[in-house]
Amino acid sequence: MIQPQPVKPFLEVLSGNRQSVPPVWMMRQAGRYLPEYRELRAKAGGFLDLCFNPEWAAEVTLQPIRRFGFDAAIIFSDILVVPHALGRSVRFEVGEGPRLDPLDTPEKIRTLATAADFSKLEPVYEALRRVRGELDPKVTLIGFCGAPWTVATYMVAGQGTPDQAPARLLAYREPEAFAKIIDVLVQNSVQYLLGQLAAGANVLQIFDTWAGILPPREFERWSIEPMRRIVEGVRAKVPDAKITGFPRGAGAQLPSYVERTGIDGVSIDWAAEPSLIRERVQNRVAVQGNLDPLALIAGGAALDRAVDDVLANYAGGRFIFNLGHGIQPETPIAHVEQMLKRVREYKG
Ligand code: CP3
Q1: 109 domain residue, yes or no
Q2: End-to-end CA distance of the chain
Q3: Whether residue 47 has its Cβ less than 6 Å from ligand 1
Q4: Which of 28, 260, 278, 280 is catalytic?
Q5: pLDDT digits over 196-248, tens only?
Q6: Is 260 close to ligand 1, i.e. is its CB under 6 Å away?
């Protein structure tokens, strides 16, 4: 006899069913604030060696679930595995972040491969299968990729920069060449996301960390439009695919972002304006967010107040509790526990 699948509270919210206690997870929940992560990371050697070892990647994905009982696990990987599969050189320097060969002239862009070597991403699929096999059925498994704009900012500059000026300049000076990078990323991200769904991901999150740095016209062209094409491309093959986005810093452009892209849920950063979100975003899609990661570092009464504010602002609607950006390595574990306790005691 087929057993009915237990419901996943996270997916319920994305399907429009508010939960009285909001589901919780944290951006970058597997990472350096956890001693068990640091231990495995030291054994693995390079960061990409950790990402591409299915056994280790699965273990690291499960660590925060075991410790905290989050409602969602996000597969341990990085947004820069797509440029890696496109044949770009990608390295992570300890304490410095990613380093790539800059793709910053039309001549270099002409040499960019149009199709990724997906065999390089097979370990990510294998890690997803392993995690899904071990996870409690009530826990949602999140697959992800970077949004084309954000991935392109690293590919063009060859590293993170404070304002992603190299990609912004290239997009003004050489819009056709830049559009080729975006198109290649759209097509390969669709394939990669479909592969993650086939391997057991229940939902797909697309991180556009650098969306908010764009003026409205460029936001429309380089953030909204590629995201809309990715959603359309994934749903052409998997019509009921659940997709969420994180256009960090999109602010007043969030309503048009959710409307135009067709996503099921959106992550908001801590600077979001509550009435705009409630009236023009949460009325359309589920909202995830938006505790300031620095309040989580601070702890104490400031943390309680910040958690209460987030709940008061959004938990009355379709809501998933999260941070407004990734957890920082220096965050005390006791503060994560304090946050979780307070969210789970919410009576709404
Ligand atoms: O737990 C999870 O959230 C899953 C794993 C995950 C990582 N990166 C692991 C990681 C996810 C979802 C990402 C996404 C990612 N990667 C984004 C978008 C989301 C965001 O946080 O803005 C971006 C912009 C990147 C690119 C990237 N990767 C940068 C800029 C850096 C260096 C900065 C840093 O935090 O060190 C990374 C490295 C990285 N990705 C680490 C982890 C755990 C740290 C590396 C290490 O452990 O040595």
Answers
A1: yes
A2: 37
A3: yes
A4: 28
A5: 999 999 999 999 999 999 999 999 999 999 999 999 999 999 999 999 999 99
A6: no
